Amino acid sequence: MTLDETMLAIGEAARDGAGALRDASADRRTAAIRSMADAIRAHAAAILKANAADLAAATRHHDRLMLDEPRVEAIAAGLDQVAALPDPLGTEIARWQRPNGLDIARVRTPIGVIGMIYEARPNVTADAAAICVRSGNAVILRPGSDCFASSTAIHAALAQGLEQAGLPPSAVQIVPTADRAAVGALLSGLGGTLDLVIPRGGRSLVERVQAEARVPVLGHLEGVCHTYVHAAADPAMAAAIVANAKLRRVSICGATETLLIDRAALPMLAGIAEALDGCELRGDAEAAAIVPMLPAHEADWRTEYLAPVLSIRTVTDWKEAASHIARYGTGHTEAIVTQDAATAEAFLGQVDSAIVLWNASTQFADGGEFGFGAEIGIATGKLHARGPVGPEQLTSFKYVVRGAGQVRP
Amino acid sequence: MTLDETMLAIGEAARDGAGALRDASADRRTAAIRSMADAIRAHAAAILKANAADLAAATRHHDRLMLDEPRVEAIAAGLDQVAALPDPLGTEIARWQRPNGLDIARVRTPIGVIGMIYEARPNVTADAAAICVRSGNAVILRPGSDCFASSTAIHAALAQGLEQAGLPPSAVQIVPTADRAAVGALLSGLGGTLDLVIPRGGRSLVERVQAEARVPVLGHLEGVCHTYVHAAADPAMAAAIVANAKLRRVSICGATETLLIDRAALPMLAGIAEALDGCELRGDAEAAAIVPMLPAHEADWRTEYLAPVLSIRTVTDWKEAASHIARYGTGHTEAIVTQDAATAEAFLGQVDSAIVLWNASTQFADGGEFGFGAEIGIATGKLHARGPVGPEQLTSFKYVVRGAGQVRP
């Protein structure tokens, strides 16, 4: 078979897998996810061996790519958490009666077949599979070449788990090659079988997907996130939040990449820099006059460093901060630090990003931290889902109307 | 300016218009819609004159295209209704507290700039404009050549109304040419300024949009809707519902095009046919053995007649009816008529269309009938919105997180 034929066959099978998942009971979907978790634990040695091969071949992103025993256990535990989440399918989102007696219910349904295109993070293999099974959607996984061996090993475990629970392997499939042409096939929609593509990776991947896709895309653009320290910020809180937002984990999309600071708040900058011990700072002239640092260039404002590097820009007020964010941000997550409620509410209202925070770290941009139980990413588009994407966000709905013979006048 | 330059300029202006709409108060958006309604009434003569020109040139769809004084008044009254709807922006869809004290709110926001591509129905010009203003979105209207003069006349009234309320005309624009190349420009996304395209028209339009669009599409596919008469149907109710579903208004997308009837229910067919007085029937051999009718061919099962024509197919049970719908339907609206609750619930659960009804006419597929106040169409896709699309369905949301200095462990 050619690659195109292979991909079309995967699509056809996924359509059947979606039907099986949809028709399965919530209990069976739960059992399948638990059984997938058990299989991950049972396959830990094979997964670590495959990961060692990926790591040996990798030239970058080692932190995202690396698995060890605790991380494999964390993957399995993540599956257990998804198994424990309430099943969204069939739940009534709303129900109301019309004056003519019609009873209208809005009921959650699966979307169908989802294509997941990702890079560098082998754990996405398990997270995406579990969230799709929980929401009744078949998934076709397409890991990047950097995590291909690890992801294939994780998928082998997942497939065994599915089978043990009596669900077909067509419900969770993986593209059997790292050939980039497989991405093109997914973006073509696999002959109409694909309902949604979710890209998760760097800007070049997401931009390719958005340019080429013939199917709807739930975009996960990179996170060029900002923390804005307002003149009325509490200095200790500002230092703690900026340090956490930047350094807690530098490789996640919710990490702050740019600090915006009011001119009137510049006296706080020394304390903030002290809390950022070990972080490279790149700032404008006003910031550099307070704390010695490298100069920031135009490109810095657009860069998702994913590294212990922070760009710093001095602004006049919250409006200038919001303008900077509108111009350079990716619509992901932004925070304001201030004790002034009116300014905070103005900023929260004006800034049009998926997540806006007041006096909290941008690293809270996470489905688990939001209480969604799990996520497969943070959507930066404005359609269908925005922000953390968990099982509920991967459902559609239909209207079920119950009558007693009503006809329309 | 070339057409492409004109379209890009329209997109740029729409971005500004979206900002003005978003920053306007709910009261100002309400005032603008009321003022648009008044302007429609004041421009009635000009609108009817333009409509006469469209009608003289038209070779089809006269019922959809035709305006008279009552229909112009109905357009104005529709605007008044939208003005009276609650403003969705800024409303909290959900709000909850996390154990760490973070307060998370999900708040409605506009989508941005919407491109509306439609055919034959001049009233869509006003409906779409009002719903977009209500939801804070700028809109670029692209009527088909068949309703171009009527739509342009309606738009002139709307623009005057907007201006009187202090909102810029860039919030509601119309493409100044019936050249089909303008559709291509919209589908390209106008240099990134377009957030969503909504096609509303025949299959060829929607398929072109879905194939070419570089921006998200909220698809309004044609409605090949079904009414299924189960063996346990009440015969009088079945006749009344089928007749209403087919004949109340044959040119709307929720009109039933195919009657599926249980073999055991065929004795009801004579009574149903009597209620369908004046309707051409095309059936399979079993149906034609009860009531004389033309033979139905394969193409009939896929056809949205939009005319007093009904295809009739005999089925064994609800499962065969559901299979027929899955194969030939467009995912729009389907009804079951039965007194047997268990069969009804099985059908409602299995059939995956935007709207499924039990003992009610498919012609209830309408935003007004659902209580949404207004709609710009019935979405047949599964993403973002499904079924009637009113102001709420044209919003996005963001998460507003309020903290007290929380950092992530």
From TrEMBL, chains A, B:
Q: Which reaction does it catalyse?
A: L-glutamate 5-semialdehyde + phosphate + NADP(+) = L-glutamyl 5-phosphate + NADPH + H(+)
Q: What is its main location?
A: cytoplasm
The protein's location, in the record's own words, is: Cytoplasm
Write the record's keywords in alphabetical order, separated by commas: Amino-acid biosynthesis, Cytoplasm, NADP, Oxidoreductase, Proline biosynthesis
Domain spans labelled Aldehyde dehydrogenase: 10-264, 294-371
Would you say which domain of life the source belongs to? Bacteria
Q: What is its EC number?
A: 1.2.1.41
Residues making up the signal peptide according to the UniProt record = none
**Pathway terms, separated by semicolons:** Amino-acid biosynthesis; L-proline biosynthesis; L-glutamate 5-semialdehyde from L-glutamate: step 2/2
State the InterPro entries in the record.
Ald_DH/histidinol_DH, Ald_DH_C, Ald_DH_N, Aldehyde_DH_dom, G-glutamylP_reductase_CS, Glu-5-SA_DH, GPR_dom
Q: Pfam families in the record, alphabetically?
A: Aldedh (PF00171)
Q: Which HAMAP family match?
A: ProA
- What is the purpose of this protein? Catalyzes the NADPH-dependent reduction of L-glutamate 5-phosphate into L-glutamate 5-semialdehyde and phosphate. The product spontaneously undergoes cyclization to form 1-pyrroline-5-carboxylate.
Family from the record: Belongs to the gamma-glutamyl phosphate reductase family.
Name of the protein in its database record: Gamma-glutamyl phosphate reductase
Organism, scientific name: Sphingomonas rosea
